[in-house]
Amino acid sequence: MVITLVDGSIKTTDSMRDFVNQRIGAALDRFRDRISRIEVRITDENGPRGGIDKMCRVTAMLAGQGPLMVEKRAGDFYEAIARATNAVKQSVARRVSKRGQR
Asked: Which of the chain's termini has less CB crowding within 10 Å, N or C?
């Protein structure tokens, strides 16, 4: 499972990369044999105007099932990353479970 952090409208920092790798790795470790690649994109939609405009989009490439994408917004980047990580973990678990029931 390869995790890639893509700069969106903001420049990512080393601490953001570390946080993404740690959170995504821990959340999706049990699915690592089913996920080939994870792409994380972070953007600031309103720029300096502020607000709940930090967005994190996580796209997981599931083996034999195609991509799965979630987006979450928050007031800061770390919260957006955490929310998106939780959402992608739940979505992957659901999709893997459905696939196993067939």
From this structure: C
Give, in degrees to the nearest 5, the angle at Cα 35 between 81 and 54.
15
- The domain total for the chain is 1
Mean pLDDT of 22-42: 93
Q: Could you give the 3-state DSSP secondary structure of residue 65?
A: coil
Question: Strand 2-7's sheet: what is its strand order?
Answer: 2-7, 35-44, 54-62, 66-74
Name the amino acid, one letter, at 91: S
Q: Do the Cβ atoms of 68 and 99 come closer than 8 Å?
A: no
* CATH number of residue 77's parent domain: 3.30.160.100
